[in-house]
Amino acid sequence: MTSSTSPTPSRPWAMLFVVCLAQLMIVLDATIVNVALPTIQDDLGFSDSGLTWVVNAFLVSFGSLLLLAGRLGDLAGRRAIFLGGVTVFTVASVLCGLAPSGGVLVAARFLQGIGAAAQASVILAIIVTNFSAGAEQARAMSAYVFVSVAGGSLGLLAGGLLTEALSWHWVFFINVPIGIATVLLGRRFVPADHGLGFGHHVDWTGAALVTSSLMVGIYAIVQVSTHGWLSEPVLVLGAVSVALMTAFVSVERRVAAPIMPLRILSVPGLVRANTVRALLVTGMYSTFFLGTLYLERVRGLSAIETGAAFLPWTLTVAVLSRGVTTRTVARFGPQRVLVAGMASASAGLLLFSTAGEQTAFFPTIFFACFAIGLGIGSAFQPLLSLAMAEVPREDAGLGSGLANVSQQLAGAFGVAVLSTLADNHTKGLVETGHATAPALVSGYHLAFLVAAAITAGGAVLATALLRPRPVVRNDIARSLGTA
């Protein structure tokens, strides 16, 4: 059995550019498509319920396959899984752009999610295993965080520009040149690794069970907006997901070569940091989703104007990614920095909950976006570092996959919960005679207040679970699991 440790790349920053380019494709896709949905609906004749599957088909395949793809990266080699994922994503993007009907588009989006899962599941592992110096690894992680967090608001801008200037087809075609460049550059700059090998026993049963469980669970979550939390479809699907996951755990305890060694769940930093990050992600996703709806439905902003409104968030994260967070963590330790960051994000969400029908962009919305960007830019890097710090190098792909799965599940669950709260509150007010616009604002206020409370709860949990450690100059190197 060969080692999974990758050789140090001769040009690590070129390698980082390649994997961040792939990450940018995924993050942009998450928001760029949302802007084009009304045009897609008119062109392809989607019903309101059918249109949601342009988003949900991607989410279901992406979220359910992250864990499996991450482990396959450990076994088969992370570069192979990465390049294969980018290739599938790029081909699927062509099919999306050429889709002549709604059914073809949904199927292509499902395929696109498969490719995205493969490439996203190993990116973090590639960064962690190929940057050995503490300061350099921390800067690399900052670049990854910036792309992951700020790319969403750039997608809003790009989606508006492409849809208005060209057509909705180009929100998918834009991935093609990026994907081709990523594959070509990846073959040159991402170092080949051999992986642990599959040996004589491949745990296909476990792989099928965990993937099916996650797929059914995510499918149940995305059905909430249509059927409600206590509806029969959601409850039945949730029960099936739990049963499949229970069977998966039982299988993993018995097989000699499990697809997901349960020892990974005994790594305290991974489990605790991912739990805290899930609470932060709930607030982040709600801001993009509910904040966009508020700006467009209440304030009447265009897609381009809405994207521009999030620039204080994007620019703040960009500044922090230039080494500010790295130096702050080196001085004060990861726990203090991430707790302060989550408190800032919670304050931003609380400020967003005060925005009304006539609230000016400055200062309220500006400082709300700024505070959230400051919080996320400060908290994400130390949370990722703490999550991966104690993960064995041979399990780095699995750890990366778990980190991504927790984020996707938290995002989907958070949007489902908060959007349901907002919708139900708004409907209740309209039914009692309130005007539509004030009712919408009140619904968004409630959702933002709950998101602020969840994020603040994450800060409290981080204080209790993530113990501060003595800070020395090479602390960041150890926190990222370098040899």
From TrEMBL:
It is found in: Cell membrane. Keywords: Cell membrane, Membrane, Transmembrane, Transmembrane helix, Transport. Its main location: membrane. It is a multi-pass membrane protein. PROSITE patterns: MFS. The keyword Chaperone does not apply. Residues 15-470 form the Major facilitator superfamily (MFS) profile domain. The chain crosses the membrane at residues 12-37, 49-68, 80-100, 106-131, 143-162, 168-190, 202-222, 234-255, 276-295, 307-325, 337-355, 361-380, 401-422, 442-466. The keyword Cell membrane applies. It holds the Pfam family MFS_1. PANTHER family: BLR6921 PROTEIN, MAJOR FACILITATOR SUPERFAMILY MULTIDRUG TRANSPORTER MFSC. This is MFS transporter. It comes from Paraconexibacter antarcticus.
